[in-house]
User: Fold these one by one.
Assistant:
Number 1:
Amino acid sequence: MLTTLTLASLQEETMHTLIAITFRICFQFGLFVLAFPLLAHASLPQSSNVPGGVAIIPLGSVSTSADTPQTWFGDQPVLVTSDHNQWYAVVGLSLDVTPGSHELRVKIGDVTKALDFVVNTKNYPEQHITLEDTSKVELSAEDEARADRELAVIQELKHHWRAAQDTDLTFILPVKGRLAGRFGLRRFFNGEPRAPHAGLDVAVARGTPVKASAHGQVLAVDDYFFNGRTIFVDHGNGLITMYCHLERIDVKTGETVRKGQRIGLSGKTGRATGPHLHWSVVLNGAMVDPELFIPAKHRRR
Ligand SMILES: [Zn+2]
């Protein structure tokens, strides 16, 4: 009986193993065949044709046009990359882009054409905050003037364009921690709408090392009224990351940083209720969802 059972269970185990192996082969093969177009996007961000998302628009085969196509969304040049022998435009869509049909201007060789693409609607969650002390949201004339000046500087930095041979579109999270404030949250203070949350908040203790999410050049470092001590890293071709509320900045403007390099320490400088890293990703001047650039397996929920 025991022998039979053992044999039976052995056979069963063997069967399981065989099934598992067969399944794995089928799965891998099936995955390869079915998901080949997905695999071809391995180094591209996740596409999301919504305000605050990223549209990935195929531009044709690399072999038919050796020169990198040039693209524009409005007046802003747009990042073009190649992946598995295909050219793609990677278009940042700002939170205030109107859902509907939009046009990407494409120049390949001497030919300029317009490519239509659709932006869908997305209803980001609302966050209602009740503040007893309104002095924290109502600025003095002096603070307001400072914030306005800085906003203009930040706008300029966001639209910076540096042509680069190669832009790494696969980011690492600059810090590990709880995702405390997601991108796109529609914020209301005492019932009044405020600017939506154009970045990702990661809750970390003060003094946590903050890493560059990909290689790049430090575009600017400054201490702003709202964002506190901030670093802008330019990854080339209109892709820029922004690290805010830092306690300490360890890099200088113009310096080259590598992916994973410590660039500063987290804090709560500027207008922050507690220590956290506010991390923003800018693409062709648009603030987009940073999580689209984090490979799925590295995402923390
Ligand atoms: Zn934030």
Note: The CA atoms of residues 174 and 268 lie 16 Å apart.
Number 2:
Amino acid sequence: MPTRQHLANAIRVLSMDAVQKANSGHPGAPMGMADIAEVLWNDFLKHNPKNPDWADRDRFVLSNGHGSMLIYSLLHLSGYDLAMDDLKQFRQLHSRTPGHPERGYTAGVETTTGPLGQGIANGVGMAVAEKVLAAQFNREGHSIVDHHTYVFLGDGCMMEGISHEACSLAGTLGLGKLIAFYDDNGISIDGHVEGWFTDDTPKRFEAYGWHVIRAVDGHNAAAVKAAIEEAKAETNKPTLIITKTTIGFGSPNKQGSHDSHGSPLGLEEVALVRKTLGWEYEPFVVPADIYEGWDAKAKGAAAEQSWNDKFIAYKTAYPELAAEFDRRVVKGDLPADFAAKAEAFIAESQAKGEKIASRKASQNSIAAFVPLLPELLGGSADLAGSNLTLVKTSKGITAEDASGNYLYYGVREFGMSAIMNGISAHGGFIPYGATFLMFQQYAANAVRMSALMKLRNIFVYTHDSIGQGEDGPTHQPIEVLGSLRMTPNLDTWRPADAAEAAASWKAAIERKTGPTALVFSRQNLDHIARTGAQVAEISRGGYILVDSVGEPEAILIATGSEVGVTVKAAEALKAKGRNVRVVSMPSTSVFDQQDVSYRESVLPISVGARVAVETAHVDYWYKYVGFDGRVVGMTTFGESAPGPALLEHFGFTVDNIVSTVEELLED
Ligand SMILES: Cc1ncc(C[n+]2csc(CCOP(=O)(O)OP(=O)(O)O)c2C)c(N)n1
Ligand SMILES: [Mg+2]
């Protein structure tokens, strides 16, 4: 049987060889953390390489995602569907070993990491999901949800602000099954960190309410093992294990230096590492006894089997709960009657004809859907009263009682969004979380990561424009809608009234392949009259709201709070004998996905005279109105004044829309 160090050396050598072959990558972190990973994976991690989707597996997150060869080596060695040939394709097009670990590309990669700090926040989300799911499903004598979340992170993650947001909340929520390993190697890209990172990290985490295990020798397997045992014994607090390591361990000339962080070691040094470690095999050759030492297939199958047995007993005792678990966690399906009930709610919202803010309409939708969907896990970054995310059936989650369905995220927009990503990646929940649209920019990269990972998340953004008024330009987004819409695989909805708000919530909940941003007004909006057929067409993202007689002279396109004023402008134009059409376009990406004949029926190519109306940056809309079209929109920041005064000041009036259309037709 090979020694522990020899098992760890397999990671070191595979990592340096793959980086060398790709002529690109980061050998330092995998070589430094190899011993820790070996102990964690071989002695503790509960997982089944043959079923990476097993619901009660431990979650492993490599927050320092630049060390991707560490996780690829672990997955390969322990028996996942990741062959040596895949390792040889490290960082190549369409390989299963992309530059940074990517969810969906590699079996066993739980979350995409690389943007430092987000992995630990995802890990916090996974631990939240475990804790809430356990509170909802476990019963006396039946612990069907009972797993740990392990996170590796480095100095970079520790320096990033998001780690403060997420770890602070993790302490408050008492996430006892979250165990993080800080790769305390004193090195980041620019060199020794003393010049830019001198926090007392143990004290910092103790102040958050974490259990901290200090100064563990990360190259001493027995010490690492003892630390993990101690961490698991602490069930009320998350644990940070601070492991002292040497970056690039095993490289005689580069270990301990940032030279080993992010470039190939070089062929000569690679040869010296082999000598130093006593590794006598060619690149990408692992001897049978090493594979044997790593093989987790039999142990993993047995672990899953024993859980399956537990689940059978649970199913006998609690058949309904077991069916819910299967629906929510295993399949991620909605209740069979959800679609019909949601349709009825949309129709009811249309019939009621209320003049309310779309954020209020959103709250009405949440109130209607939460009782139908226990998987909805809500929250807001300290703006519940403004975002209107709380409803009667919302129950806050606390350290002591995690059986609720609502998280008070505090003022942590980025943390909230990345935690939502972790909750969604874990499974069992559809998270929704809210802030002002302006502060989406604080969270932007986590929203992008959600879209990249194809996660089912609902980002709720209220106070969506200058219409929010007195708070002024610091709170009035101009460029955010455009950037949301330009994010691949993110659907953005900006509903015009209660019916569109309800339809957008339904679409967001039903979307399994990516996140949705729902954008709502602070101010009251007119109720819009629609036929039943028009109500059904909301789900197509864009539809004819007020039609012309035959082919229109001009088409007006509006979204959200500007639909009402645009309809009025169209009426004024019609009174002047103009034959115009109004298109409501709550979601451009959803409209773009419709078949060409539908799109052509709404926006016929033959009608070049087009005007878009939206209180956001004009540039986005030229795609729909063409270079010769007009946009009633924003090119500057807003101002501080009451909302109606600002809307008038910036031209969102019937008169200005009418004259813009007339000018265009007269040109
Ligand atoms: C948000 C973000 N900023 C910057 C980078 C670029 N980057 C990658 S690794 C790294 C330094 C990380 O230092 P550390 O976590 O200590 O890694 P080590 O060198 O110890 O492996 C930086 C700045 C990044 N990946 N993500
Ligand atoms: Mg470091």
Note: The two ends are 85 Å apart (CA to CA).
